[in-house]
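Quick one, tokens below. Sequence please?
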């Protein structure tokens, strides 16, 4: 972290020296290098986080450029995670970012999650989200999730302790439509990705600063300029929480 950023964070009276020391030690696993990852990791770096593993097997396409702002035309055809690493290392000399160019399967997610302090889900499909939720719940590792499609975005955070709700408590596997809504097939308002990614960073900072873990789903709806907080409790029928 540069001296200027460090000084600004301390002068804000929001974070203490102790907070920043904790932030620098956090090892963050990010699954997905698409539109939500870009604002999240950008603001996470500017907030003092230094250790990241970013996982994605996708290559940069021209259609990505309007909403994944760390990429340029010279990035097309190259691995997304490697391009993110190169971009951020040009800004933060002390950043430790490990790019993993592969699809996150169950074995990898279990091993990688156990080696990190927080898992951040920026994926864009139900299968991966359920898998991440199951594994982090079993390992009791905090999980921060962000998703967006069309003009609506959602953010959910759980500490994954015994009484914590999980993703399946909100969207039961048997009751959720499995049709995929992603940026590529549904369209997206680009500014929504920035809202979701930056809000995710604030949730993570609040958790580290004050151990505050909201039991709610935050919903952004650009159609009516609305932001809602929906309280989430454990579902007694949740197979992830109650039927291990």
């Amino acid at each position: 972290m540069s001296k200027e950023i460090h000084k600004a964070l301390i002068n804000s009276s929001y974070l203490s020296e102790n907070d920043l020391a904790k932030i620098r030690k956090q090892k963050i696993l990010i699954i997905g290098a698409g539109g939500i990852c870009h604002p999240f990791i950008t603001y996470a770096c500017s907030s003092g986080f230094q250790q990241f593993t970013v996982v994605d097997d996708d290559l940069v396409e021209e259609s990505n450029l309007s909403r994944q702002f760390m990429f340029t035309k010279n990035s097309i055809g190259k691995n997304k995670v490697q391009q993110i690493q190169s971009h951020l290392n040009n800004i933060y000399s002390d950043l430790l970012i490990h790019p993993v160019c592969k699809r996150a399967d169950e074995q990898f997610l279990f091993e990688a999650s156990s080696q990190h302090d927080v898992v951040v889900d920026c994926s864009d499909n139900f299968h991966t989200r359920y898998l991440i939720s199951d594994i982090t719940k079993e390992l009791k590792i905090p999980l921060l999730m962000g998703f967006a499609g069309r003009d609506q975005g959602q953010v959910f955070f759980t500490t994954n302790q015994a009484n914590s709700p999980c993703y399946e408590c909100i969207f039961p596997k048997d009751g959720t439509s499995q049709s995929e809504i992603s940026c590529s097939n549904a369209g997206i308002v680009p500014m929504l990705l920035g809202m979701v990614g930056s809000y995710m960073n604030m949730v993570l900072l609040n958790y580290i600063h004050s151990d505050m873990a909201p039991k709610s789903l935050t919903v952004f709806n650009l159609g009516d300029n609305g932001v809602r907080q929906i309280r989430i409790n454990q579902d007694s029928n949740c197979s992830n929480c109650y039927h291990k």
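The chain has ten helices and eight strands. The mean pLDDT is 87.
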